[in-house]
Prior knowledge:
Elements: H1 2-11, H2 14-49, E1 58-59, H3 62-74, H4 82-88, E2 91-92, H5 94-131, H6 139-158
Antiparallel strand pairs: 1-2
Helix pairs in contact: 2-5
Amino acid sequence: xxxxxxxxxxxxxxxxxxxxxxxxxxxxxxxxxxxxxxxxxxxxxxxxxxxxxxxxxxxxxxxxxxxxxxxxxxxxxxxxxxxxxxxxxxxxxxxxxxxxxxxxxxxxxxxxxxxxxxxxxxxxxxxxxxxxxxxxxxxxxxxxxxxxxxxxxxxxxxx
Length: 159
């Protein structure tokens, strides 16, 4: 019974819930970045280089190279998709690596900008908090302070 109770306490702790929320939002954010790469960035880069990056590869075995050549001949020069080439044997998929590298760089830049903005907002909030004028003490606190000072002065005068 103690193990279940400990697990419940662990699961409802704020940090665990925050982590779970972060993972869920991170997954959704990853889909957005993936779409940005696949649907916007890579087609533009592909136009400039006249290539579809994800299908840039070369076969590492004769079987793959022959299969790719046969596919291209049968399909008016259209390149064989990477997954089909992988089914034939090992391939050096440098285009897929370039796509993933670009994906990482964009994601890292976005995270950098987000952290920078959060740090700037935090700094601005702390500066505003420091700039706030100190609130005047409540009237009863002021009165008690005056009484204390008068009592101290009377004690000093009696000595």
